[in-house]
Specification:
The complex is a heterodimer of chains A (408) and B (199).
Chain A: H1 2-61, E1 69-74, E2 77-87, E3 92-101, E4 104-116, E5 122-126, E6 138-139, E7 143-145, E8 149-151, E9 156-157, E10 161-163, E11 167-169, H2 173-176, E12 179-180, E13 184-186, H3 200-207, E14 209-211, E15 216-223, E16 225-229, E17 237-240, H4 241-244, E18 249-252, E19 256-263, E20 266-271, E21 281-290, E22 303-308, E23 312-314, E24 324-332, E25 337-339, E26 347-361, E27 366-369, E28 372-382, E29 397-407
Parallel strand pairs in A: 5-7, 5-26, 6-9, 7-10, 8-11, 9-12, 10-13, 14-18, 15-19, 18-20, 19-21, 20-22, 21-23, 22-24, 23-25, 24-26, 26-28
Antiparallel strand pairs in A: 1-2, 2-3, 3-4, 4-29, 15-16, 16-17, 27-28
Chain B: H1 3-58, E1 77-81, E2 84-89, E3 98-104, E4 119-125, E5 131-145, E6 151-152, E7 164-172, E8 183-191
Antiparallel strand pairs in B: 1-2, 2-3, 3-4, 4-5, 5-6, 5-7, 7-8
Classes of the chains: A alpha/beta (408), B alpha+beta (199).
Chain lengths: 408, 199
């Protein structure tokens, strides 16, 4: 009797313990499953991210890369990448990368667009000596320099700022660190092309407007027309731009351009030098502005690129003695943007620039003393936000792509 | 009834009592363990869910399926504080930017749960009614870093300075046996929303 009861007790308790321990085990397993699931999803995602970075790197190294990846073993899983051209005309590409790890998959989609120099609010190859970005300097769009990035008392950069070299503080990081509101990277090598302006000639020959065989061309934009002459005191001739330059490119070969006027539409003016230092310079004789100011009417589609093989200079003349208004993205392949006789001309007010400056070497627009401006201009540069997504026709490109959208 | 019988009865009572005590202790321990283990399972599920939701949403900061409509993603974060963030992203991939706001409610909102520390984590899309999630979150802490990797004091005066962020989430079981609350902690050391660094 006692033996039977003992047996029953032992069997009963064993059953209870078995059930309880199985339940405990199940709970523990499910808890572990949670984290295993999270881990596999995280690894799959990491594989997809890595694949996207590898594909992006391939595109940066070779813009024609389109082979993608197929079941490439990576980090214990697999990655697949496919490249698709979304817009052949604008050359917009998308890479779709899928990471797979133990049944979990994750997808990353990255869009690339050709990178144009016109997107920069400020670009320079050389800062023209030891020039510091100071407390009073604010750059409203993307910034890049191939030179050292010298900061003094917290200059402000609203767009992404990059430099090929490094950041140098005037005294210390605490006293001088810039405010990077759009991020900052260094070690970015983005050289300026050496013959982008000269190459515009073929495009102008194709469906644009070309001036050649003259030392100087006086060009005045007048809405959708363009007036021009070759001598200072001769009457202007006029052209209707939509038919004279259907592709939007106006090219002045191996000469000097003297420019002013009001622009309607989207145009780029190229001015080559033919390896003469005296040529390939655009002088701004007076205001050059959009017919519709995008700050007043955001639907404005007026755009202007001024691309000089040498420099773009503000003429020392009477109209420019009291402010100058410039609406354009300015590109100086071998020189820079500055003011003619910046150190001897009278105090001339402000340079009200709406656009961007892309130059080889930073140039001066005036001189300053402890009491303020001694000669030339004060700078009032405002970035034209539309340049983030649009560029004047045939504006020089970087030759590569940039990431414009990242979905994960 | 002889002495032997009395001894048998007393012995049986003692042994039975011991067995009952064991059974009672077993039952109590099993209940506690079951309660706590189940609580921990829920806790871990809650934590994994919170982590996945936050990662899913935060990675999309500044994303727009038509990039030309939001060309400067560095403007995507509109407000950033230690336990609150407001940013824009294209949630439904319709080329239109939507706003997302995350914030943690006060502990007093969840006075109905035995845990005195748990709070509601709210997610708000555009101007919709805040969607509460009672997942036992006791801490939702965000730390922001600038492009140099330095911590930006919160609330962040210039959200454009934010280049990356650290997310800290603590979750506790909303109820526990004998108030022995389980807790779990998740930290995303550096979450870089890639679109913030585009262009």
């Amino acid at each position: 009797m006692i033996g039977k009861a003992t047996l029953l007790l032992i069997v009963g308790f064993s059953l209870i313990f078995l059930v309880v321990s199985k339940n405990f085990g199940d709970v523990s397993n499910r808890a572990v499953d949670n984290f295993v699931d999270y881990y596999t999803q995280t690894v799959a995602h990491d594989i997809a991210i890595s694949g996207a970075n590898i594909a992006a790197n391939n595109i940066f190294l070779d813009p024609t890369w389109n082979s993608g990846y197929d079941d490439v073993p990576f980090q214990g899983g697999y990655l697949d990448a496919q490249l698709q051209i979304l817009d052949p005309f604008k050359n917009i590409r998308e890479v779709t990368v899928q990471g797979t790890y133990y049944g979990s998959t994750s997808t990353v989609k990255v869009k690339f667009a050709p990178s144009k120099f016109s997107k920069f609010a400020y670009y320079s190859v050389s800062e023209g000596g030891t020039i510091w970005w100071t407390q009073s300097d604010t750059v409203w769009g993307p910034f890049h320099t191939q030179d050292y990035f010298r900061a003094h008392k917290h200059p402000v950069f609203f767009g992404k700022a990059t430099t090929k070299k490094s950041l140098i503080y005037y005294t210390s990081e605490a006293a001088d660190k810039p405010l990077f509101l759009g991020g900052y990277d260094q070690g970015i090598d983005l050289p300026l092309p050496t013959n982008a302006v000269a190459e515009m000639e073929a495009i102008a020959d194709d469906d644009g407007l070309k001036f050649s065989g003259h030392d100087t061309v006086y060009i005045t934009f007048a809405g959708d027309s363009l007036r021009y002459r070759y001598k200072y005191n001769t009457p202007d001739s006029s052209l209707y731009l939509p038919t004279a330059a259907p592709n939007g490119l106006i090219f002045a070969k191996n000469c000097i351009v003297r420019l002013k006027g009001t622009v309607k539409g989207q145009y780029t003016l190229g001015c080559s030098s033919g390896s003469s230092l005296a040529k390939g310079t655009v002088y701004l004789d007076n205001d050059i502005v959009f017919q519709t100011d995008p700050r007043i009417d955001p639907s404005s589609d007026d755009l202007l690129g001024i691309c000089a093989e040498n420099s773009v200079l503000i003429t020392d003349n009477i109209p420019n003695r009291s402010d100058i208004n410039i609406h354009a993205s300015i590109y100086c392949e071998k020189g820079g943007f500055g003011a003619q006789k910046y150190d001897t001309r009278p105090i001339s007010g402000n340079i009200n620039l709406l656009g961007g400056i892309i130059q080889h070497t930073r140039k001066a627009v005036g001189t300053f003393g402890s009491s303020g401006i001694k000669s030339g201009f004060a700078k009032r540069y405002k970035y034209d936000d539309r340049l983030m997504v649009a560029s004047p026709p045939f504006f020089p490109g970087t030759g590569g792509f940039e990431i414009v959208s990242w979905y994960e | 009834m002889g002495f032997s019988t009395m001894l048998d009865i007393i012995g049986s009572i003692i042994i039975g009592g011991i067995l009952m005590m064991i059974t009672w202790r077993l039952s109590d321990a099993a209940t506690a363990k079951t309660y706590n283990n189940s609580g921990e399972l829920s806790l871990q599920q809650n934590l994994a869910t919170v982590a996945q939701i936050l990662e899913h949403d935060f990675r999309k900061i500044g994303y727009c399926s038509d990039w030309t409509k939001f060309p400067d993603p560095s403007k995507a974060i509109l407000y950033a504080d230690t336990s609150e963030i407001l940013y824009v992203t294209d949630l439904d991939l319709d080329d239109n930017m939507d706003s997302i706001r995350y914030y943690l409610g006060p502990a007093s909102e969840l006075s109905g749960t035995p845990n005195p520390r748990d709070k509601v984590l709210y997610r708000v899309e555009n101007n919709e009614i805040p969607k509460p999630s009672n997942l036992g979150v006791t801490r939702f802490n965000l730390v922001y870093f600038d492009a140099s990797g330095d911590v930006i004091p919160s609330p962040v005066a210039l959200p454009g300075l934010i280049a990356s962020m650290e997310i800290n989430v603590s979750v506790e079981s909303v109820a526990a046996y004998d108030t022995a609350y389980s807790s779990a902690f998740w930290r995303q050391i550096r979450l870089v929303a890639r679109n913030l660094r585009n262009r």
